[in-house]
Amino acid sequence: MNEKNTKKKIKVAFPHMGNIYIVWASALRRMGVEPYIPPYTNKRTLSLGTKNSPDSICLPYKLILGNFIEAIEGGADCVAMITSPGICRLGEYGPNIEKTLEELGYHAKYIELKLYDGIKGMYRFLVELTGEKNPVTILRAIIFALKKVFVVDRLENLLSYYRAREIKEGSAERAYNKGLKYILDANHSHELKQAEKRATAEMKKVEIDPNRDVVYVDITGEIYLVQDPFSNQNIERELGKMGVQTRRTLTVSSFLKDAIIPKIFKKGETHLERAFRLAKPYLSRDIGGDALECISDVAYANEKGKDGIIHISPFTCMPEIMSQNIFPAMRENCDIPILPLIMDEQTGKAGYLTRLEAFVDLMRRRKRKKEKELANADNEKTATEVK
Ligand code: SF4
């Protein structure tokens, strides 16, 4: 750790989005800067954000503003916001949040990371944030943070596998939380490798029923809501309890492959490249947000024989309103159940769980019907061969 910078004691806070704080905290620690992790998004965060935001703005904006208010109240000197140019409101998040914080009297240095500036943008951002000028230190911190993203994503996939089959409810999540702590505490690449091994070993200790009738569901939608359990009301946990193995189609690692990682280091087709290819018959250009990816994710899940796909979007999110309007036209080519869910601060848990249960029932019935049809076809074939 850089002793000289640690003494500066800058407390930097990032907004929450699922487990992304683990990655930022690691990168900053590697550069000798103290990360300030605000309380994980909760009801108070939502209420602070909602009270100080325009009514019709999308849910992620309100939660991010709430995170920043709580971070500054908790002593953060600097808040860092991730932005990107865009056809949707994301481009407006930065200036509005900065102005609102100032007007409310929450004074902290405000720094923006423009994601689509790639590695160079990240480099400039870290120089501005930490004052560190040594390119080797900065690059090492970036590479280390990127490695952590991939490790966390792999651990989340394991969680989904084990949670859908666990015998004791909650055991997979407990093992996962232990593993996550190992990953958070790793400060170097060799420690990270060890941490991943230990985390995987924790997951493998979870007692499962390997014969459980599991259904497979992809989760797509606006990336913040897909990633963030508070704003999606922990949809993956609820589905896991119902014996559903989920796969997020929008992950931080897939996003970074498209936005940050240089082409020469990428293997195979990225999510965005696949999105342009598969969404083409239905949507020929990027309309902002994650709409293009969502359309292509439906086609991809259908191609992969998934039992269903859930699309989650914030209320008033324009790109996702568009994609939800395209789904009916896709039914001609894609024979897959789609459940669109719109979330905002008013979404009640009971109604939302009822919709999930009904969707899981539908997928199970469909799956059994298909299996029966397949078995009948096999029997008919054998009977004809015997004749
Ligand atoms: S994609 Fe939707 S929710 Fe996200 S910033 Fe744009 S309009 Fe808001």
- Average pLDDT taken over every residue: 90
Helix segment tally = 16
| Overall tally of domains | 3
Q: SSE string, helix = H, strand = E?
A: HEHEHHEHEHHHHEHHEHHHEHEH
Name the CATH architecture of the largest domain. 3-Layer(aba) Sandwich
Which CATH C-level class of the largest domain is it?
Alpha Beta
Ligand set: iron/sulfur cluster
Return residue spans where pLDDT drops below 50 for at least 5 consecutive residues. 1-7
Task: Please explain how this structure is put together.
The chain is an alpha/beta fold and 387 residues long. The chain folds into three domains: 7-133, Rossmann fold (3-Layer(aba) Sandwich), CATH 3.40.50; 144-210, no CATH class; 213-387, Rossmann fold. It is 57% helix and 11% strand. The chain has 16 helices and eight strands. The chain has helices spanning 3-6, 20-30, 43-51, 59-73, 90-103, 118-130, 135-165, 171-185, 189-204, 223-227, 235-241, 252-259, 271-279, 291-303, 318-330, 349-386, and strands at residues 11-13, 34-36, 78-83, 109-114, 215-221, 244-248, 308-314, 338-343. The strands form two sheets. The protein has a four-stranded parallel sheet with strand order 2-1-3-4, sandwiched between helices. It has a four-stranded parallel sheet with strand order 6-5-7-8, with helices on both faces. α2 links the parallel β1 and β2 (34-36). α3 packs across α4 (59-73) and α7 (135-165) packs parallel to α11 (235-241). It is globular and about 80 Å long. The model is unreliable at 1-7 (pLDDT under 50). The protein binds iron/sulfur cluster (SF4). The site of iron/sulfur cluster (SF4) has 12 residues, from α15.
